[in-house]
Amino acid sequence: MAKKAKVNAGILIIGNEILSGRTQDTNTSTLATWLNSIGVKVVEVRVIPDIEKTIVDTVNFLRSTYDYVFTTGGIGPTHDDITAEAISKAFGLKYEIHKEAFKILEKYYKPGEFNKGRQKMIWMPENAGLILNPTSGAPGFSIENVFCLPGVPSILKSMLGGITNKIVGGEPILSLTINLRTVESEIAKSLTSIQDKNKEVEIGSYPFFQAGKLGVSIVMRSTDQNKIDNCNLEIMKLVKEKNIQIAEKR
Amino acid sequence: MAKKAKVNAGILIIGNEILSGRTQDTNTSTLATWLNSIGVKVVEVRVIPDIEKTIVDTVNFLRSTYDYVFTTGGIGPTHDDITAEAISKAFGLKYEIHKEAFKILEKYYKPGEFNKGRQKMIWMPENAGLILNPTSGAPGFSIENVFCLPGVPSILKSMLGGITNKIVGGEPILSLTINLRTVESEIAKSLTSIQDKNKEVEIGSYPFFQAGKLGVSIVMRSTDQNKIDNCNLEIMKLVKEKNIQIAEKR
Lengths: 250, 250
Known about the structure:
The structure is a homodimer. Chain A is elongated, with a radius of gyration of 22 Å. In chain A, α3 crosses α4 (83-91) and α8 runs antiparallel to α9 (225-241). The first copy, chain A, has 9 helices and 12 strands. Chain A has 2 domains: 7-166, Molybdenum Cofactor Biosythetic Enzyme, Chain A; 174-249, EIF_2_alpha (Alpha-Beta Plaits, 2-Layer Sandwich). In chain A, β10 and β11 (213-222) form a beta hairpin. In chain A, 46% of the residues are buried. The first copy, chain A, is an alpha/beta fold. Chain A starts with 6 loop residues before the first strand and ends with a strand.
């Protein structure tokens, strides 16, 4: 893929355990932070249950809408791990044993331990690219612009390094955060006018409570450092005018 | 709404800060846990940016697909808080000052503090129902089956008690979790056959690492306690056969 100015992605979290509230998803924030650092903007996240048709339809929508799609969950050895088969159906590809994955897991496990349950993890869409797993052996896989990762956060994190060079990002998205000792309503009007004058900087305003004190985080995001700097100057002017204390800048 | 056996919901998380990875969403898990406890099953979660058309389209899709929709984020006083206006457009309703919300905030703030920024928070779709906010004054609102809550987790949590009686849930979703000292591949085949024999119980299998030890959580979910109990008996039989240690049952 040729380098584009703006590259986007959708994230698909697959798993009943997130929808029931039993498990707190943290993979979205891990993936989004990593993608941002390589110039890919996450535009949408969906969380869906372990239902084949839902996975097929959602993957097909996301992969035709965004430059990249990252799925998490459903690639383990049990009956509720149906992501690999569903992705095969989404692409109209055979669901078959991946020879390289077989070799990797045969070597990873002690003799006799590579049992039927574990062998489920080498079934993938035909011609899938492997995503190596330094933590627990079983690889993830990619097909075209779709990258399928496991749901366990520590394992997922360990696998990102192996695909960074497969993702062609756009210009890195830069950001500057200023934490102010004020409340949103105090600066709302001025912020609106700063946003109107700086359309290419995305300005976010987020109230926080920290160590018993109220504050507002102002987050400026853009691919252009100069534009962030200009925006920052206007915020600093506002801060001075209103005599607001700066708690942190990073 | 008459009481139905199965009642479902979609959750819509609105906010660039979640998509950039800056903020870890915890509202999904809070809402899902609460909804489960009142017999509402969350079927889908979407995270979208602060873009009006995206909010309008997504809300219109979700509200026609699920019994209930819960949105979080974008109802504060700043320029990036556009949820109330977008929801008005989604329903084709006027976006106007809500008289009761005005009275609430006029009383909540000290004289002179109810400034223009804060007055933005009383603009809502016409005839919106208010969701009272015991934490920070500014109410959320509901229109038909859509409930709009703030993004700040502590404030959102404090507002759920006020709408529990507005949600007509189905039969409560019961669950039993058994944590086993084993690995998924050891029990995968037996679990598949237990799931096949117990189609009305949703059986999830989730590996975990805890205090340096590997384990698997088996989660059984159903509206029928007898069916969970039957399923549990079969799991206990499997555990005994394979001589697996039970770490926890709840």
